[in-house]
Design goal:
Layout (H helix, E strand, L loop, with lengths): L2 H9 L10 E19 L7 H11 L6 H4 L1 E20 L6 E7 L20 H7 L3 E5 L18 H16 L7 E9 L1 H12 L6 E5 L7 H8 L3 E3 H4 L9 E4 L2 H8 L7 H9 L4 E2 H5 L14 E7 L3 H4 L6 E2 L2 E2 L13 E7 L12 H13 L1
Parallel strand pairs: 3-4, 3-5, 5-6, 6-10, 10-13
Antiparallel strand pairs: 1-2, 2-4, 7-8, 8-9, 11-12
Protein name: AB hydrolase-1 domain-containing protein
InterPro entries: AB_hydrolase_1 (IPR000073), AB_hydrolase_fold (IPR029058)
Keywords: Signal
């Protein structure tokens, strides 16, 4: 834990139990992109066995499976419908702070509002209670957003361009408000995308909060992928009429392994989130880590917040160090000119931070940092 965050903790007060008056608006935003992405030599899996074979190859550390299935690039020039939600304090101030939140794999926008209204797990309400506005959305291929080809379109590169276009849409005042600061807040794959924005479009975010993220241990990604229990989404959830390149965690135990740290969560909350779990695609997994890299021109602040038992980025142990530096603080190597770098290790939490008992205190840290 950095000295700055430790200082915050010494005088933090819990957020009010009664949520501040807020106004929330559901939106559908047309987003046009034009970009080049990898052409993947992967076919739609013909059945569950074929899908499991894909993930077995992907999760084998000694095989560079991703490179083997990329054959050049192709253009994606499309307009997609992106579903999102804007929540603001009742009397939102001009030039205030907006948190721009991007969810990770196996979730949709509901990751930021776990438990619904007046729930202690509701991150969006914690933002508004702190006087900030928040925009959060269903990534392409999730929730109420468009669901195009799950191999050649729903990839990291496309998601990055959509995120950039959404930020520009907001900066142009098209949500009906002008914000003085836009803070990127990501979780897991959403943190990878947020980090890619700071690298490619360093003026999009003023500051960035990367949750469920660390560097220095690739073993966790193999473990997390192998234990994901990927199941063809339409077979696991028959109401989803999607091609077999769309997948979900197939069982509660697989969901627990990847996202939860027993016994530090409410089983009922976890069960509810499993029922509404989000989809991911073969295209996203194949391009999952490609965007991780240095942001040489991002001069804003950076905060990394990750659970001590994070499976995907720490292989279950975020206390480990590399040359004396813990995995969260290694992220500073990606931000050589950031104006400030802080980290906070959430004890007893797994990868899905918003599902754990520690969620309220975690939100306190983030909101205090955002507003400072």
């Amino acid at each position: 834990m950095s000295a700055m965050v430790a200082q915050y903790l010494s005088f933090l007060l819990p957020l009010a139990s009664v949520v501040s008056a807020q106004t929330c608006t559901s939106l559908t935003i047309p987003v046009s992109i034009n970009t080049q992405v990898p052409h993947l030599t992967v076919a739609e899996p013909v059945n569950q066995a074929a899908l499991t074979g894909f993930f077995t190859s992907f999760a084998t550390p000694s095989v560079d499976f991703t490179s083997a299935i990329i054959n050049g690039t192709h253009q994606v020039k499309q307009t997609y419908k992106i579903a999102g939600k804007l929540c603001t304090p009742k009397n939102v101030k001009a030039n205030g702070i907006l948190e721009f939140a991007t969810h990770g794999i196996a979730f949709d926008h509901s990751y930021w509002e776990v438990g619904g209204a007046n729930s202690k797990y509701n991150f969006a309400e914690s933002a508004v209670a702190s006087g900030h506005s928040i925009f959060y959305y269903d990534r392409l291929g999730n929730g109420a957003s468009s669901k195009p080809d799950g191999i050649q379109e729903v990839q990291s590169g496309v998601q990055i361009e959509i995120t950039h276009q959404l930020v520009q849409y907001i900066r142009q005042g098209k949500l009906g408000h002008k914000f003085g600061k836009i803070i990127g807040v990501g979780h897991s794959f959403g943190s990878i995308l947020s980090g890619a924005i700071t690298a490619k479009y360093p003026k999009d975010f003023d500051d960035v909060v990367l949750t469920g993220f660390a560097t220095g241990n690739v073993v966790g990604l193999y473990i997390g992928t192998g234990s994901f229990g990927a199941t063809i989404a339409s077979e696991s959830i028959p109401t989803l009429k999607l091609p077999p390149s769309y997948v979900v965690p197939g069982t509660p135990s697989a969901y627990q392994f990847g996202f939860l740290n027993y016994p530090f969560y409410d089983p009922a909350v976890a069960a509810d989130q499993f029922k509404i779990r989000g989809t991911t695609t073969l295209g996203e997994f194949a391009t999952l880590v490609a965007p991780i890299g240095v942001s040489p021109s991002f001069t804003g602040r950076v905060l990394v917040v990750t659970g001590s038992a994070d499976s995907f980025f720490c292989a279950g142990n975020c206390h480990q160090t590399v040359n004396g530096t813990n995995l969260l603080d290694l992220v500073t190597e990606l931000y050589p000119v950031a104006s400030n770098f802080s980290s906070f290790l959430v004890e007893n939490a797994g990868h899905g931070l918003t599902l754990h008992f520690s969620a309220p205190s975690t939100y306190d840290v983030i909101q205090k940092w955002v507003g400072s």
